[in-house]
# Entry
Amino acid sequence: MKKQALRLILNAVIALMVASAWLYMVFGSEGGTLSDTGVRSLKYFTVLSNLLEGGCSALFLLSFRFRRLRRAVDFGKYAAAVAVGLTFSTVMLILGPGYGYQHMFLGANLWFHLVVPLLAAAEFLFLNEAPMGAKENAWALLPVLLYGAVYAVVNLTGGQPYPFDVYGFLRRGKAMGLVVFALLTGLSYLIGLALRKGNQRLLRSRP
# Structure
């Protein structure tokens, strides 16, 4: 019971944190290399992945009243944890070294790039009780695949310079952009694998 209450509280905190950070980004004066204001912030995978996590956290709260939602919400939480895990990994491995870590944690980016991804991973690893399998691991790639498809279509049909290349993945050409996308997709799968294997091990170790 304590564990269930803790998960409810944590999901409420995540949902409120994401909503507050995004509203600050929409209506506030945001700073930082990868920041934007208003609905233009929705062009970033960072923002979309965090909104997915926040939305699934809110739905998790509702699923205690509407039990039929539970399995779908459990998967949504897993996919969202993978998505924000990719955001965190991209910041640490690619964007931070390229743009400077001091810009990665300004304003709402502190929550979107660091706090929410870490909370989402911890919540899934330690509190999730719905084991995910290889099928769910593959389906959890859907957020990055959908974003990648839109990223490619808008850029490759929008003329030069690429109008939607907000992360600069196409600056060295289409081939390099495809390589980066493939690497990020593979990284997403590995993040999902690590989360579900870690969660399964923790589930087996519980009395």
Notes: The chain has a mean pLDDT of 90. Residues 2-205 form one domain. The first helix runs from residue 2 to 27.
